[in-house]
Amino acid sequence: MISSGALNRRRRIGKAALIAVPFTFLGYFFLYPLVSVLGISFFPDGEFSLSSFSTVLSRGSLREAIWFTVWQAVASTLLTLVVAMPAAYVFARFSFPGKSFFRAAITVPFVLPTVVVGAAYLALLGPNGPLGIDLRQTVWAILIAHIFYNYAVVVRTVGGLWAHLDPRLEEAARMLGAGRWRTFREVSLPLLRPAIAAASSIVFLFTFTSFGVVLILGGLSYSTIEVEIWRQTTAFLDLPVAGALAVLQLVGISAILVAYSRYQERRSVEQQLRPVVEVARRPRGRREQGLVWGTLGFTGLFLGTPLAVLVGQSLRVGGGYGFDAYRSLADASATLVPPVEAIGNSALFATTATAIALIVGILAAVLIAYYRGAVSRWFDVVLMLPLGTSAVTIGFGFLIALDTPIDLRTAPILVPIAHSLVAIPFVVRTAVPVMRSVRTRLREAGAVLGAPPARVWREIDLPLVFRAMLVGAGFAFAISLGEFGATSFIARPDAPTLPIAIFRLLGRAGAANFAQAMALSTVLMVMTAASILAIERFRVGEMGEF
Amino acid sequence: MLEATKLSVRFGEKVALDAVDLTVADGEILAVLGPSGSGKTTLLRVIAGLQTPDSGSLSWDGRPLEHVAAHERGFGLMFQDYVLFPHKTVGGNVAFGLRMVGMADDRMAARVSEVLDWVGLPGYQDRSVGNLSGGEQQRVALARALAPDPRMLMLDEPVGSLDRSLRERLVGELRHLFVERAITTLYVTHDQEEALGLADRIVIMREGSVAQEGTPEQVWRHPAGEWVARFLGFDNILDATVADGLADTGFGRFEISGDVVGSHRLVVRPDGFKVSPTGTVRGRVVTRRFRGGHYRLQVETGGGVLLEMELDEQPVPMVGDTVTLSVDPDAVVVLD
Fold first, then answer.
1. What are the tens digits of pLDDT across the range A223-272?
2. Which terminal Cβ of chain B has fewer Cβ within 10 Å, N or C?
3. In what order do the strands lie in the sheet with B262-268?
4. Does A181 contact chain B (CB < 8 Å)?
């Protein structure tokens, strides 16, 4: 018989151990680099000074980058909303053959690595593209790529709410004499506002911190803050200015997040939501058929063309087609290491990052889901911070912070650690709701039957949470495969990941290098899509709406 | 006047409406009565223009409605469980239809307060619809449908989700309002008491077709067939041989009106029995329930037939008593 005091002590030790692992990990690999970024920008020479900030604000090219970052994010957000709204409606309100396949397919662009999207648009809108127009280094290429990237966010978020809106609300407006447009404006749109706000803030955040797409498509003409941080660090070695830019970007991101959470608290319209099955129906009549198939056709073309062109360009050999570019990936003559090695590097890094993200993420999720109180609530917030911190800032922070107490900056493990930081919030977000949904009664039943807490977790919670963990693992793997921003600071030249190898190839002149970049992008796209499609198989219900 | 001819709607294999004919005269209150799945809501949606029929025609005052969109038909529709706009106040909900016709602000405010008065919610304009009780929501929905002065008002189970006493009071209020304002009304319900108490005319629907049509009295007195009789709550359905105005049921003979002869199925309404020493039907009381104004009894006759009856004259026999009953010829309906 264990005394209750001993039991309590054991529980407290267990909880402390639970906190220690994720706390230490995040403290050293996230908060410490972040603080170092603050340090280098406010204390450039060891003493407090705002000089790096005044440099940022007075130098024309940097002011321009800040202004461009803001307005392209606004424009990308608005354009994505407008372009994706019809598909959101069609997916919400109609059922049609192949719907679940279509739904999974439109998500693919969102999870594609930024480097792949950049490469695909370079292929589509470049001088050799099938459209015959060269939009490289124009803002249009960037905006279109951003719409492509975020299309699924609007369709899934706005469409997700739309699918639950009682269609009779719209019918009620029609019966009161409102036409289709008026019904949309006066009834659907206001009721969809929470989802539109959520989708807008996600799209804004992603495009505000856009790195790979802008770096590849904007060339030297356009750069975001993110690109400037990288450029100031790698090209000009001006770390205080890079730090100041990172701080300004953090302030911007925080402002958006605060505004969004304020908005969420304020909205108070109660809605009667209905199960999706009652709402979706087959299109009837020529008008609805036209809308559904027209929208799906546009979606297919808009999302499919860049990827098809990417694959097409990878198979291009002189005037004809062949696998030469793929075969040449094993050839090291033009590059430091054969590009094919990047595939192995990425697979290894992604596996390691997934393991780290799962271990830290699951421990953190257990803490958040099962322990109520200030510590776990505070932890919940801290865990989400890496999501709001740009990848470039994380990479920059690693570079300037992790030389003490031991110099980790060239350790190969650093790459998967950076990747896992980006992936942990996704793992936590998928696991926590499922853990919370395991009913207390089930656990009590296990306990009454004589199972100690750890046994209850293993026998009851774990089987139920296992699927969520698989989903989290799939996300972590895909994120790590495609991660570019942080990796671009810390990858060793002799151990490039796929995105790094693609970016290097894109920077070289010559058709052979371009074709190799396309081939490598295709490989990366297929690997990412495979891990995402694996997730779709395990996804239960509406878990993890990313 | 609304005229529907041979309306049919199919959902895949399932026939929701099968060649339904229906008219609603100006100022008339027509109730469409039927169990769930009988097609009554589909019929309403077709008339509203929210559902396209597979075949059949629909017209108002002789003008076809096929190519008139829902929002141009000028019909009001009050939905089952109301469907109030959650992002608008009570006043905003009621004013919605008025804004669609471009009414000026001052006239609109006056109209909103007028219809809110009609439904017994004066001064509710600025309330949020989230905080209303079920009965209040129902009234707001009614006010919203009435405000634009529709040429016909349609109601889909408008009191279905309210509790019994509130329901009865509201049905009375609704009839009063419709009659006083001469509102042409199409009222869909599954509840016979509601339909009988409210309508000028009733259409009973079964599996997508019209099973019977008539005034409440006609429907009540002469249900057309066993299905309608059972749906209206008449459970005393008996096989009898009729000769010389007398029906022989095997457990007793009684007079019926009309001049049928031979084998028939009869229904005896529960209010058609009386305890009488000269009665011809004998049986034993099996159950006895007090129902307020009357008692509801089940009496088992010879041959094991159970008769349902409502008795109100004292003394009401007790369970186990043997009783002799007479049957009112007017309460007997010959079904076929």
1. 999 999 999 998 888 899 999 999 999 998 888 888 887 777 666 555 55
2. C
3. B253-255, B246-248, B237-243, B262-268, B332-334
4. no
